[in-house]
Amino acid sequence: METVQHVLVRATPQATTGAVWSADLLSTPLARALSAMALWPDRLRAWARRAPAPPRTARSATLRDLLAPGSPWRLLAEHPVVLGLRWPAGDAEVRWTIDAQPFGAGHTLLVSRTEARGGRRFALAWPLIAPFAALLRGQVLRAVKAEAERAQARPSRSAALRES
């Protein structure tokens, strides 16, 4: 199962790739809500077992935060960025690729591709999860686009010094 989303960014591929790593992926209320929804199964499991609930989701997060120790996400490649996630049940894997492709002078086509493979249980769950995952990835693309375009609009410090 594969899904692809893309957005045109008015910034260079270098600025866009930098923004992939520095953008606040939870910058919108929708992104924070979708991230919190992802914890519902863990919260329900903890409640049923009378165990402590998992911590609340952060108010902001970068891609580096997503790869912190203890995270289920792993960095598989840097150019393009490829992340891997083993499904908790162990019968599935999700690969998320984020690629900044040159698209004309000073523009970038930012592409998000998700590939999901798994066993029977995963095949039953994925149709329920996929629309929310796609919404969240769309929010991530918008956050990266905004960050890259802001960075591109800021004059570099060395250029500002040369002009003075």
Notes on the protein architecture:
45% of the residues lie in helices and 26% in strands. The protein has helices at residues 13-22, 29-37, 40-48, 63-66, 120-153, 157-163, and strands spanning 2-9, 73-78, 81-86, 92-102, 108-118. The mean pLDDT is 82. It is built from 6 helices and 5 strands; from the N terminus they run βααααββββαα. β3 (81-86) and β4 form a beta hairpin. It has a single domain (2-152), classed as Alpha-D-Glucose-1,6-Bisphosphate, Chain A, domain 4 (2-Layer Sandwich). The N and C termini lie far apart (54 Å). α2 runs antiparallel to α5 (120-153). The protein has 164 residues and is α+β, with helices and mostly antiparallel strands. Strands 1-5-4-3-2 form a 5-stranded antiparallel β-sheet. This is DUF2867 domain-containing protein. It comes from Solirubrobacter phytolaccae.
Task: Annotate the secondary structure layout.
Layout: E1 2-9, H1 13-22, H2 29-37, H3 40-48, H4 63-66, E2 73-78, E3 81-86, E4 92-102, E5 108-118, H5 120-153, H6 157-163
Antiparallel strand pairs: 1-5, 2-3, 3-4, 4-5
Helix pairs in contact: 1-5, 2-5
Protein name: DUF2867 domain-containing protein
Keywords:
about 160 residues, alpha+beta, Alpha-D-Glucose-1,6-Bisphosphate, Chain A, domain 4
Low-pLDDT parts are none
The CATH topology is what?
Answer: Alpha-D-Glucose-1,6-Bisphosphate, Chain A, domain 4
Number of domains: 1
**Which strand order do you get reading across the main beta sheet?**
1-5-4-3-2
| SS summary, helix count | 6
Biggest sheet details: 5 strands, antiparallel
Shape: globular
| Strand count | 5
Instruction: Kindly report how far apart the N and C termini lie.
Output: 54 Å
Structural class: alpha+beta
CATH architecture: 2-Layer Sandwich
SSE order, one letter for each helix or strand: EHHHHEEEEHH
Mean pLDDT: 82
Rg from Cα = 18 Å
Briefly, what CATH class? Alpha Beta
